Amino acid sequence: MITKTFDTPILMGEAAGNNAALKIESALNDYHEANIILATGASQFHTLNTLVNYDIIDWSRVNVFHLDEYIGIGENHPASFRLYLKQRFLDKVGKVKDFQFINGNAENPQDECERLNRLIKPLEIHVALVGIGENGHLAFNDPPADFTIEDPYIIADLDEACRMQQVGEGWFDGLEDVPTQAISMTIKQIMKSKSIVCSVPDERKAEAVKACVLGEVSNLHPASILQNHKHCTIYLDQESAKLI
Asked: pTM score, two decimals?
């Protein structure tokens, strides 16, 4: 794992997005198709904006998996990650080879996990875009996270700190509106990715960045596991990096 710090969130996102684009292009050259994971949230705004404007990628040869989604909200809800990725990614790049959205309002969320697990298990993921939560979570694996779960997708319980982050970012009006569960990719599945591009802007992430970058690897700081990945780059701005 390496870290890189930039003066502004925009410069951070441009660097992260360009790196992700180059890695996707490299996978297309080596394997003809690329399998990627996309994250959502405020941390990904500038990264995705850069990625979708990288016009030499043949997106028709790219398979996309969705990192996580709330359980119990429809795809047109303002906080829906499906809506986010449709508006900020899919509508911009046009047709991809395949996009496996997580159906957060599936009648049986466990069946939805199993559907996704069957699809992703045979594949090698070439590039994963992720972030780090204010509580150090990776995807929706809140502390204490389970580093041992083999299933690629699980039903995750969201702690109060995680849910308050969603309110603070403006996705929900109040804590009572934030779902208490989500379908999330697991730590082990994320770590199987050949390359990880992690975007972490903003001062409110500074404590989590310090714990996850400088502290010991611990399930109390889930994203600290990224220290063990040989091809992970964490992109920071001046505010998120202020304690390291």
From this structure: 0.96
